[in-house]
Design goal:
By secondary structure, this protein is mostly helical. It has helices at residues 22-52, 56-83, 86-107, 115-140, 146-174, 179-199, 215-221, 227-256, 259-283, 289-302, 313-342, 346-350, 352-378, 384-395, 397-410. The chain has one domain (23-201, 213-410): MFS general substrate transporter like domains (Growth Hormone, Chain: A, Up-down Bundle). Helix 1 crosses helix 8. The two termini are 38 Å apart. It is found in: Cell membrane.
């Protein structure tokens, strides 16, 4: 038996497989289509807007609008997801995503005039889809197979962002502007329509009791309750996500001025995730979450430091490779442990919609905060060292999430409850 980190790791012992049932696999398929549709164009939306108007602040405001709209949509849609047919919210999310790309196609160069409404529309699509997706995810998984599901979900993310951006970059560089961009936005539109059709094969989920509009606020305010700490941890996680989700791809394009190079970057870095995500999903025992996640967090922070030397394709590639290797160690346990807390007993599981809304709203609050800090510093035209320091500080926010969640990471929650 191989041990490390004070004997808490047990990588050598083979664990029984926690298999995924047919509905879990179908949910992964629908989620994969949504990711693929976004992967074709998401990587290049920022580049497209940059080429129309070389303004990084404008692009950051686009994402602020997206995060705010996503949070509001989550809160409002929670009632439909809990009391009605949550599959309708999932399908509507995919449909609104298709509408977003249709409008980008129709607006063309005028898209920069409608930057905030377009960002809000994409945020609404994400809010509808991910709320319904995460509720169904809770219902079709349990504590025994949750890490495995998250490993496969990460694999789909890596595969989508490995293949689709490379194809998109190839097409854009082979077809003159703006036809290349119009083609990949059309591809996204088509994939989303297939996703809507596939979602009809997911079983209709049972409706629940009435939706608590202010339930999340009461949970945060509850003295001694877990959700004050969990919400703060999710916000800390969102601080990093808010900026890094768009800044890295845009920095790659600014450094290379070539969409094919951005496609190659995504191909290389995501290919690593094809191995690392399922491997992490298989190797993680629940008792390994504490130190495994810390290793992942420290590594993704260290990955930023080469930017102090220069922000070039080479240093961005080093960053991307390290993220591909270590990001699953961070994201899989932190995702799983929160859903374990949600399912800790019957009463908590019955409020799964409200808890997931609370989780996602906290994430988006962190994303908005991190992006606003980014905008505030960027508006001052910072020097290269200051800009890198900003990325290090924002990228270190997951450490706060780890500290806040370490109780549950160290002592896994027994969650016998699985959603109906």
């Amino acid at each position: 038996m191989r041990r490390g980190f004070g004997g808490r790791f047990n990588w050598g012992k083979r664990q029984p497989k926690a298999e995924l049932d047919a509905q879990s696999r179908l949910l992964l398929f629908v989620q994969g289509l949504y990711l693929l549709g976004n992967a074709f164009s998401d990587t290049f939306v920022g580049v497209y807007l940059w080429k129309l108007n070389n303004d990084l602040l404008m692009i950051a405001w686009f994402f602020v609008a997206q995060y705010v709209a996503m949070a509001l949509t989550l809160w409002i849609a929670g009632k439909q997801v809990k009391e009605g047919n949550k599959m309708n919210a999932l399908r509507l999310g995919v449909g609104v995503a298709a509408l977003f790309y249709l409008l980008v196609l129709l607006l063309g160069a005028r898209a920069v005039t409608y930057i905030l409404p377009l960002g809000a529309l994409q945020g609404a699509a994400d809010g509808l889809f991910w709320l319904a997706n995460n509720v169904v995810y809770f219902e079709v998984t349990d504590r025994e197979n949750r890490d495995r599901f998250n490993g496969f979900a990460g694999l789909l993310t890596s595969f989508s962002y490995m293949i689709a951006p490379w194809i998109a970059g190839y097409l854009i560089t082979r077809i003159s502007d703006p036809l290349g961009y119009h083609l990949i936005f059309s591809l996204s539109l088509g994939v989303f329509l297939v996703g809507v059709v596939a979602s009809f094969f997911l079983k209709k989920r049972q409706a629940q009791d009435s939706y608590g509009w202010l339930f999340g606020v009461r949970q945060i305010a509850e003295r001694g309750g877990p959700w004050g700490r969990i919400s703060a941890a999710m916000a800390a996680q969102g601080v990093r996500e808010g900026v890094f989700s768009f800044a890295i791809g845009l920095l790659v394009y600014i450094a290379t001025r070539n969409e094919m190079q951005l496609g190659n970057y995504s191909l290389i870095t995501s290919a690593i995730g094809i191995i690392s995500y399922p491997l992490a999903g298989r190797l993680f025992e629940r008792r390994n979450r504490l130190w495994g996640s810390l290793v992942g967090i420290v590594a993704i922070i260290l990955a930023i430091f080469p930017f102090y030397w220069e922000i070039s394709y080479a240093t961005l590639l080093v960053f991307g490779i390290m993220i591909g290797v270590f990001f699953p160690l961070y994201t899989i346990p932190l995702t799983s442990v929160v859903f374990d807390v949600i399912g800790r007993d019957e009463e908590s599981a019955s409020r799964r919609v409200e808890y997931i809304v609370l989780r996602e709203m906290a994430l988006n609050a962190g994303r908005v905060f991190g992006t606003l800090v980014f905008i505030g510093v960027l508006a001052q035209e910072p020097s290269h060292p200051l800009f890198t320091t900003l990325l290090v500080l924002l990228g270190s926010a997951p450490l706060a999430a780890w500290v806040l969640l370490r109780k549950w990471l160290a002592d896994p929650v027994d969650t016998p409850v699985q959603g109906p």
